[in-house]
Amino acid sequence: MLTTTETSGADATTARRPLVESRMRWAVEMLAEPGPGLAEDPRDHFVAAFVDKHGDGLSALLDSWRAQGPFTVESYTPVAHKGWATLIGPTGDRFTLSIVIDSSGLIRGLGLGPELVIPPLRDWDELDAALDVPGVTSTALVARLVDDRWVSLYERSPDRLMPTGSAYKLYLLRALARAIEAGTVRWDEELTLLPQLRSLPTGEMQDLPDGARATVREVAHKMIAMSDNTAADMVLHRLGRDAVHRAVVDSGHQDPDVLRPFLSSRELFEIGWGDDPSLLPEWSAGDRAQRYELLRRIERPLTTRMRDLNRPVYHLGLDWFLSARDVANALAGVWRDTTRDRTGTIREIVTTYPGVPIDGERWPVAVFKGGSSPGVVMFCWLLVDPAGVPHVVVLQQCGEDPGQVGDGLRLRGLGDRIIHSLLP
Asked: What residues does the Beta-lactamase class A catalytic domain cover (predicted)?
């Protein structure tokens, strides 16, 4: 039996908890079943991308997990469409089971590994020590906003440009907010999924058929709350790169040219891991004009598969590069946008998923964004206290050995520790 040990203060994050809990219970029961493999069709439980990523190795993976059981569940933490459980094996070994579901309740991410122990943080020196990982570059900024200026509580190379994965979606949302305010885009306007806009997960819109339509409101919600890559590419296609470039500049990025041309997720996947190996060195060596020309040439459906994402490419100049301070400034801009949006839609979008359980009385507003790619992980929060003072927590890591960076659970856990133990 699963029991909830943590809760979120935001009502919007509770909608999928029954689905997450049901799938987590199924996963635990599946791991306890005798016999090899999966007795049912995996597509009854997993999204197609998860099955395709693991291919014929899915049964072997599940068998290797099952061999470490049977398990008992010690604790379970749901946050919107994600959940984490601590499992105890028959000899007392401890494990972390993580799960991610899509809006239909199918599993789009499932992992089992040794229990992830997050060190307690009693002061900033302990955070500094926790961020020291051999072979990994870590940057961070923890600050509060005073008179439109960030006052640092803790910083670690906060102006170093870092690959950030999906943090770029903050700029897309800012550009969309400007277009909504100007009346050139409407929340109820419908966008069409074209073949050349289909990307890879995270997200679920990539599974929709060609020609599927969704409102700007729905697409933007999925882009932020579920970090849906296809949704982000649809927004970028509707707005155009120039609008997003302006949002980058308006948000105070220290070097806006590093994000020009502004990549879609499909373009990142195709250049970095697609079926033409010449694209990556061409991107790496190219100037701005040559990179624009490269993007024009690859305006086609994606050839990359999830299983191809097996090596870092950020060190060759392929990612979205922001410093921790750039991320903080983008978050501050998003927060200002919520006050300008009379419909309340932007605030609803950015507060749907807080990333970790949040005490709603201590932090009535919580904005979260995560990002990752092979060898890259980052998490950022903007938290507003009851007095209306915004605080930010930005954590970034990268390493050329993806195993040293991991899947982000440890960095997310450190963010949780900062929020609950170190923020004043």
From this structure: 154-343
pLDDT tens digits, 165-219: 999 999 999 999 999 999 999 999 999 999 999 999 999 999 999 999 999 999 9
Strand intervals (E) in 298-364:
321-322
CB neighbourhood size of 297 (10 A)? 10
Closest CA relative to residue 145, chosen from 382, 397, 305, 366: 382
Task: For 104-170, give the DSSP string.
Answer: TS-EEEEEEEE--PPPP-SSHHHHHHHT--TT-EEEEEEEEEETTEEEEEEEESTTS-EE-GGGGHH
Q: 101 is written with which tokens?
A: 């579901």
In the prediction, which pLDDT does 16 show? Answer: 57
Judging by beta carbons within 10 Å of its beta carbon (0-12, 13-18, 19+), is residue 250 exposed, middle or buried?
A: middle
pLDDT per residue as tens digits for the range 336-353:
999 999 999 999 999 999
The token pair at 408 is 């982000």
Q: Which domains does the chain have, with CATH numbers?
A: 11-114 (3.10.450.280), 124-162+322-422 (3.40.710.10), 184-318 (3.40.710.10)
Residues 352, 358, 364, 365: what is their CA dihedral angle, to the nearest 10 degrees? -40
- pTM of the predicted model over 0.70: yes
